[in-house]
UniProtKB/TrEMBL annotation:
Pfam families: Aminotran_1_2. Pathway: Amino-acid biosynthesis; L-histidine biosynthesis; L-histidine from 5-phospho-alpha-D-ribose 1-diphosphate: step 7/9. The gene is hisC. It comes from Psychrosphaera haliotis. This is Histidinol-phosphate aminotransferase. InterPro entries: Aminotrans_II_pyridoxalP_BS (IPR001917), Aminotransferase_I/II_large (IPR004839), HisP_aminotrans (IPR005861), PyrdxlP-dep_Trfase (IPR015424), PyrdxlP-dep_Trfase_major (IPR015421), PyrdxlP-dep_Trfase_small (IPR015422). PANTHER family: HISTIDINOL-PHOSPHATE AMINOTRANSFERASE, HISTIDINOL-PHOSPHATE AMINOTRANSFERASE-RELATED.
Length: 373
């Protein structure tokens, strides 16, 4: 058995693409904790920006013997109506993550470049690296806004610029003027991707209408966050018809399973949207209350403003983020340590959960606060 495994490893070592050898897979919240033996039912999951509630959607089992439509029309129509774009400008994908991967595989050859602006979402770099595409990092300014001049200095070399707004894990929205400056300078040269995974928590900040003036703008969306359907794996790329058609050359022939299409379409119905908007209202209010509370804790050196369903906190130097993570894990509460990210030394990200979950979180933080006395 071990012998066979060893022989296979040697074979894999010989054949694997060299650029994959050193690559570490994305440490998704699920992967990080799936080994820890935590039991799902009692665990408070506040590490992946999921919605704590579940929408009322279901699929009809009688349809599974047939292959699904390539791009199910009811789903595409529902999303185009919701996002106020034409159906030709919508591509349904297996999560926004697949949109990221397809953009890179469609527009970047091995050895070409993308620009990312860290601290930001980790999958842009991982998708690029697995495709042997180089990642140019142009860090955000200390204000967590774009360093527009540096981006413009480096963009001649890049096929795609990824901009996350609202940004994960900082929680703030990128200034529209800065985005427009980047779009203006890259018109005809590069694609600018605005990742709007959290836009439902701050609808007025969407940039989809800029697609009319800037055919190089791509907007990524998902049902995983505000719509509470992370387990469904359904996201959308919004772009000019030419960009969508190019991506259709690369995407799998049956990307959206039939039950996923059915349930996603229900989530986008009038009733589904009402449900989602009620969740967003509730979570936004709870987030604002949590931020006010967190600002009173002396160990919280900084509580960053948020237009999302999560809050980033910088801890005082005397309190180690790893230690805080352990204290929470002992209470079966899972948060996300963001300390490895550029500029985010000793920070923790807290997803906004249900009222009970947030009470449990505040309890643990209150205990930490009392120990300071
Ligand atoms: C969660 C997230 C995604 C991925 O969403 P899926 O649709 O679940 O793949 C993409 N971008 C950002 C910024 C995210 O936080």
């Amino acid at each position: 058995m071990t012998d066979n495994l060893n022989k296979t490893s040697t074979l894999v070592d010989k054949l694997i693409r060299p650029e994959l050898k050193e690559l570490k897979p994305y440490e998704s919240a699920r992967r990080l904790f799936s080994m820890s033996g935590s039991d799902d039912t009692n665990t408070v999951w506040l590490n992946a920006n999921e919605n704590p509630y579940s929408p009322n959607v279901s699929a009809d089992p009688s349809l599974y013997n047939r292959y699904p439509d390539f791009q199910p029309e009811p789903l595409i129509n529902a999303y185009s109506q919701y996002a106020a774009v034409k159906p030709e400008q919508v591509l349904a994908t297996r999560g926004a993550d697949e949109g990221i991967e397809l953009l890179i595989r469609t527009f970047c050859s091995p050895g070409q470049n993308i620009i990312i602006c860290p601290p930001t979402y980790g999958m842009y770099a991982i998708s690029a690296e697995t495709a042997n595409v180089n990642v140019t990092k142009v860090p955000l300014l200390p204000s967590f806004q774009l360093d527009v001049n540096s981006i413009l200095n480096q963009v001649d070399n890049a096929q795609i610029v990824f901009i996350c707004s609202p940004n994960n894990p900082t929680g703030d929205v990128i200034n529209r003027n800065d985005l427009v400056s980047v779009l203006e300078a890259t018109k005809g040269h590069a694609i600018v991707v605005a990742d709007e995974a959290y836009i439902e928590f701050s609808t007025e900040d969407t940039v989809t209408e800029l697609m009319n003036s800037y055919p190089n703008l791509v907007v990524l969306r998902t049902l995983s966050k505000a719509f509470a359907l992370a387990g469904l794996r359904c996201g959308f790329t919004l772009a000019s018809e030419a960009i969508i058609n190019a991506m259709k050359k690369v995407i799998a022939p049956y990307p959206i399973p039939a039950p996923v299409a059915q349930m996603a379409t229900q989530a986008l119905s009038e009733e589904g949207l009402l449900w989602m908007r009620r969740c967003v209202n509730e979570l936004n209010n709870r987030r604002d209350a949590f931020i006010e509370k967190a600002k009173t804790w002396r160990f919280a050196n900084e509580v960053y403003p948020s237009k999302t369903n999560f809050v980033l906190m910088k801890l005082s130097e005397t309190l180690d983020a790893n230690k805080v993570m352990t204290l929470f894990t002992e209470q079966q509460i899972l948060l996300r340590n963001q300390s490895k990210q550029l500029m985010l030394n000793n920070t923790i990200r807290v997803t906004i959960g249900s009222e009970e979950e947030m009470a449990a979180v505040e309890n643990v933080f209150n205990l930490i606060e009392q120990k300071l006395d």
